[in-house]
Amino acid sequence: MKLKFLGTGTSQGVPVIGCTCEVCTSSNPKDQRFRSSVMVTTDEYKKILIDCGPDFRQQMLINKEDRVDITLLTHEHNDHVIGLDDMRPLIFKSGKNIPLYSLFRVADEVKKRFPYAFADEKYPGAPAFDLHEIGNEKFTVLDTEISPIEVIHYKITALGYKFKNLAYITDAGFISETEKEKLKNLDVLILNCIRKFDPHPAHFILPDVIKLFEELKPKKLFLTHISHHFGLHDIEDKQLPAGIHLAYDGLEINF
Question: What tens-digit pLDDT sequence spans the chain (255 residues)?
């Protein structure tokens, strides 16, 4: 299987509109981050998208992706769902609804934000989705076993997802001891890390991530959902503890 980072930035993206800091004005492509999303390609070449934010169209074009077989949603914040309307060309091309897997609460929000996709009498150009409610129990789809990981993002529950010995978690500020059991001794763990300093009410910062790395002991840990406050990629990546890496848009991981 393969995971590709389509975006590794926060809800504002990087560069941030109007910001003139050294990260936002950097010419290094690794400092330019779309909103967080990944594409998982299964052993049978099926495409599993995790989250569909406002940069979805550009992400698909830049990465020359032309198919999404299913979409997993972590939670309902706009930077993770508001690009769903841009799935229309894929839906028209395949002639099939795109299945969305999420918590019930998230599915309900999708219906509210895209009511035209679920109307009894649809506009001819509207997108079409099949909603599938999940919790934090394992399920199998596209011949792939997926284990949701329940995390807390400020005051709401969000989901991470585990495939084989890789787990992807974004928008988390707390993981229970029960859910941590699913994350121990992985080959690859991907965690959100919004900045190096200053505690955040909804996201991990670097000291939190280092503590989890030491506790969970993955072989490799990649940071995502990174803001411009973290610093320049090429400088900061070299200063991280061994085994921890800054992800960047376009990075691919085979697992």
Answer: 999 999 999 999 999 999 999 999 999 999 999 999 999 999 999 999 999 999 999 999 999 999 999 999 999 999 999 999 999 999 999 999 999 999 999 999 999 999 999 999 989 999 999 999 999 999 999 999 999 999 999 999 999 999 999 999 999 999 999 999 999 999 999 999 999 999 999 999 999 999 999 999 999 999 999 999 999 999 999 999 999 999 999 999 999
3-state secondary structure of 6: strand
| DSSP 8-state secondary structure symbol assigned to residue 33 | B
Quick one: how far is CA 41 from the chain centroid?
Answer: 14
Contacts of 22 (CB under 8 A, 6+ apart): 232
Closest by CA to 131, choosing from 112, 150, 149, is: 112
pTM of model > 0.85: yes
Residue 185 CB partners (closer than 8 Å, separation 6+): 216, 217, 218
